[in-house]
Write a structure and sequence with these properties.
The chain is an alpha+beta fold. It has five helices and five strands. The chain has one domain: Winged helix-like DNA-binding domain superfamily/Winged helix DNA-binding domain (Arc Repressor Mutant, subunit A), CATH 1.10.10.10. The chain is globular.
Length: 124
Amino acid sequence: MCKVSEKAYICPLALSVDVLGGKWKMQIMWHLKDDILRYTELKKKLSKISQKILTLNLRELEEAGLVSRKIYPVSPPKVEYSLTEYGETIIPILDAIHMWGKDYSEEFGVDVEAAEEIPMLKYA
C-alpha cells in the first residue's frame, strides 16, 4: 500500500509535492524517461546522490507507482529501473519544468552546470 494513500490532503498540489518532492525524485524520473537503467547507471548520472538516498527515493517512486523495478534471477543480481505507464505521464511536466529552469537561469544569470545530457542546477 502506498504511503501517500494513507494520508489526507487539502488539495491535489499538496499530494503532487508529497509524491514528487525532494531534491532527487524528479531527476531520477528525468533520467528514466528515455531509458531503462540499472542502479549503477542511475548512480553515475546522479553522481552527487548517496547510495542510501538513491535507494530510498527509488523505493518511494516504486511505491507510488511511478517507477518499476525488474529483478533478473542471475548471479550477481541484475536489477533494472524504468518508468511505469503512469510514470510516463509526468514527462511533459518534467519537460516544462526543465524549460522553465533553463529560461530562469538565463533571465537571472544563474550558473547551470552542463551535464552530459541535461543541465541540472548546482546544489549547495
